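hi support,

uploading two proteins for the ticket. first:
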Amino acid sequence: MPQKILFVYPNIGVELRIPLAISILISCIRKAGHEVKLFDPTFMGEFHTDNEAMEEMGTHKSTNLIDLVGITKQVDPKDELCLVIADYKPDLICVSIVERNFSTAKE
């Protein structure tokens, strides 16, 4: 029986990279016939990156994130997650983290 699965990547103002594992898992789960949704609050509210430090080290070229991302949605990610859960009604919620967003995931 197909299940509704919600992946949560609790990335609030930390990283601008989506872990490859989430993409692979979602693809495999969909291929198995399940419905999958991803909640990624990366661009909700104000975010900060380590891009400036990487630019100073010379490992990255300078970028204007506003040009790339646009104006971000100014909402509380926790409230948005509650709305997504209430609307989507998942059978299973999976949380995928990297060490930088461990505290956010615990909340």
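and the second one:
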Amino acid sequence: MLILDTCAFFTQKHPEGEFITVPGIKNEIINKQSKQYFENMLSTKLKIMKANEQSYKVVKEQAKETGDYDVLSPIDLDIIALGYETKGTIVTDDFAIQNVAL
């Protein structure tokens, strides 16, 4: 299972597999081509999911421990919490997300 961050829609590059992302990601996709790619994936092989509160609690504590909490957006926390909960692989180019996810 692959959890896609915004970069996957901007670059349109990611491994093949089962794709999920978080509800707010659509608001971060700003250019027309990336929006179209997102919509195409949503109609075929992309699922939208939200993590439960316990996963958020764990992720927030971890982010504070690594010192990344202040630079992570709510969407970033959503991505990490979903990855934590589903044991999926997060596809991102964001160092803070990568650091907390490790």
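thanks. also noticed: The chain has a mean pLDDT of 95.
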